[in-house]
Amino acid sequence: MIRCLRLSLVLSLLLATGAGYAQQAAKFTVSGYVRDRATGETLIGVAVINPGSGQGTATNTYGFYSLTLPTAADSVRRLVSYLGYEKVRYAAKAARSVSHTFQLQAGSSALAPWPG
Q1: Using an 8 Å Cβ cutoff, are 90 and 24 in contact?
Q2: What percent of the chain has pLDDT over 90?
Q3: For residue range 69-101, what is the model confidence (pLDDT) as tens digits?
Q4: How many CA atoms lie within 13 A of 32 on its CB side?
Q5: Contact at 8 Å (CB) between 78 and 70?
Q6: Could you give the percent of the chain with pLDDT greater than 70?
């Protein structure tokens, strides 16, 4: 009886671990840096948004962004927006983690509206 309970517990733990791994494997990450095109300086607090899922993030103090998305997305679309710079729209096929650096051109003074 105790042996059967132990085996049941071990199997439950293995299944739970496998399910968690499957959920993790169903995602990928897009990441990179955002820089000023003219100076090459990294830009802090730039909005990087995936309009399809409504997920977004902002660059950190090093100008780095990282966004984890489900692999169900047919293509990755990003909208990069920063006050005083022109908005950038970017689309690419992605089934695995990718890195992309954006270079923003000074110009527009308005932030993009949140998609929705």
Answers
A1: no
A2: 38
A3: 877 655 678 889 998 999 999 887 766 788 899
A4: 14
A5: no
A6: 66
Tokens of 28: 């990928």
What per-residue confidence (pLDDT) applies to 56? 92
Amino acid at 25: A
Q: Which two tokens stand for residue 36?
A: 């000023």
Cα separation, 77 vs 115, whole angstroms: 12
Whole-angstrom Cα distance, residue 114 to residue 116? 6
Instruction: Classify residue 115 by its DSSP letter.
Output: P
Phi/psi for 19 (5° steps) reads: -65, -40
Residues 6+ apart with CB under 8 A from 90: 77, 78, 79, 80, 100, 102
For 113, list phi and psi in degrees, rounded to 5: -70, 150
Please, what's the largest Cα pairwise distance for the chain?
Answer: 73
